[in-house]
Amino acid sequence: MEGSQSLEEHPYIPRDLKLPGFVPGVLSQSTIIGFYAVSSLLVVSTIFVLSGRSPKRSKTERWLMCWWAFTGLTHMILEGYFVFSPEFYKDKTACYLAEVWKEYSKGDSRYAARDAGVVAVEGLTAVLEGPASLLAVYALATGKSYSYILQFAISLGQLYGTAAYFITSWLEGDNFAASPFYYYAYYIGANASWVVIPTLISIRCWKKICAAFQVQGQKKTKVR
Amino acid sequence: MEGSQSLEEHPYIPRDLKLPGFVPGVLSQSTIIGFYAVSSLLVVSTIFVLSGRSPKRSKTERWLMCWWAFTGLTHMILEGYFVFSPEFYKDKTACYLAEVWKEYSKGDSRYAARDAGVVAVEGLTAVLEGPASLLAVYALATGKSYSYILQFAISLGQLYGTAAYFITSWLEGDNFAASPFYYYAYYIGANASWVVIPTLISIRCWKKICAAFQVQGQKKTKVR
Are the C-beta atoms of A71 and A133 separated by less than 8 Å? Predict the structure, then answer.
């Protein structure tokens, strides 16, 4: 009986996942998602307004600055907390960041289980891509010549990470969600932005960089 | 007794790794490495000689073409075989590619054990980076405007993959080598080129791309 009790303690799949000392989350799903949505909206609208001060800046560039600020802070704060808090599921203080990962683990229990593939991808994302995303905001704001190659590098890192994240789950049986709802809402839905947006940005940067080399080529021909 | 016999069957660490049906390798270490070295030398020298036919091409570009041909074929043939041969350790035919992975697993038994992280990284490497590397040879040979951004993208993928490869091993206890010799020769030594060379190429491409945007910027200023 004791054995079956300890298996019933957490809401995650697989049911036989051992999480000794697990403390259930106390914040509701709507509180957790609502707070993330409102904070993100605050960041995005602040960047959008501030970036509009320069009349030379295009709408696309302003939206890109919003994206890099949003994704950079998500990587550094949310994912950074996960990477350096192996025991978040034992948290008793209702700390918001621990609650996020207790909730998200319903869509992918490998977070609570501390799967090495997930921790490696999240580690690279939080430590390298997070700060690099904030650098991309600065590069766009100041029109640096490395702006496109930096955005391309981070987007490619995000795509590689998301691909590895989905492939490892598939190889391990794709059975880490507490229900189809959590599977589609959290595991698929929450990650979809990090497939679609980096793909669009990569294509845009690729084209801009090719165009720059064509201009350089024309210039060289003229000089000759 | 039966249990302990089956544990003694393979030469890998951890000793309790289960590999039912394991067939020991028959080719010697020097045969395996020698064949890879001679084939690689053949590829590299062929590309180096052929690429020298155009007098406009710099030495650096010729060496880059050699690297991309070598790494592309390694990704597609060696790593491609591994990805699509989950039971290579049962091979009885002394097939060279199976022998390579039976030997390399002495440096990292996660290959024989089919660790999801390793298979995911090798899958992305073999299926995406392999063909892309051969495209880089073509792009360099024909002076395409996408040459630098393509080389940058593949190098970054190689660096991300190698980082994820080392980090997952470290998170899982870094105890997958049959001896310190295999650890340093195979796990560290054989992977070192895919850290050093992609780093150098990434830096070179980053600088070239930034320079192209500076030229473009100057041109725009002149036109005004």
Answer: yes
Distance between CA B7 and CA B223 in Å, rounded? Answer: 75
Say if B189 is an interface residue toward chain A (CB within 8 Å).
Answer: no
Predicted ipTM > 0.85: yes
- The band of A218, judged by pLDDT with boundaries at 50, 70 and 90, is confident
- What is the structure's pLDDT at B9? 86
Please compute the mean of the pLDDT values over residues A137-151 and round it to a whole number: 96
Tally the C-alpha atoms within 13 A of residue A27's C-alpha that lie toward its C-beta: 22
Cα–Cα distance measured from residue A170 to residue B82, given in angstroms and rounded to the nearest whole number: 18
> Which of A145, A165, A169, A201 has the most B C-beta neighbours within 10 Å, making it the best mutation to test the interface with B?
A145
Which A residues in the span 156-175 are in contact with B, Cβ-Cβ below 8 Å? 156-157, 160-161, 163-164, 167-168, 171-172
**A221 pLDDT more than 90:** no
Question: Tokens representing A185?
Answer: 């809402």
